[in-house]
Amino acid sequence: xxxxxxxxxxxxxxxxxxxxxxxxxxxxxxxxxxxxxxxxxxxxxxxxxxxxxxxxxxxxxxxxxxxxxxxxxxxxxxxxxxxxxxxxxxxxxxxxxxxxxxxxxxxxxxxxxxxxxxxxxxxxxxxxxxxxxxxxxxxxxxxxxxxxxxxxxxxxxxxxxxxxxxxxxxxxxxxxxxxxxxxxxxxxxxxx
Length: 192
Known about the structure:
Structural class: mainly alpha
């Protein structure tokens, strides 16, 4: 059984995943498109800056591709957007850590500067947190599909109790009327 099968299409968590993926995707897309607008050379490492961050053509291309993936995740929504947010958020963090070590070296082909690293950490944490929202917590509500998946027995008991509570008033109203109504007289009783 897949968790995506249990996830309601209209669950309120899906809205968080969609809007966070779209917002972060638009920010990264703007950075990438500004790099293309300046017609940067692909592997230029002379420190050209866009929005306070150093960039080159390859970094702009990567930014646009990541942004389109985030926007695509926002369109699909649900568990896909959540998982995509967590994956891309983790990649942003890994990129930030990797570029700390190659900051002033020739291996820095994406022309990362310290502001790029800080942006990578901040954006990565935002995307990762939004993807984990409602999935990773100690106090998830009992209607949360992730809580139900982790606590299957208790969720089944609660579901059964809710069904019984719904059926109980219905049974009283239909069955109770029959109990209060006297049985119809049979033909033998009517003749005698």
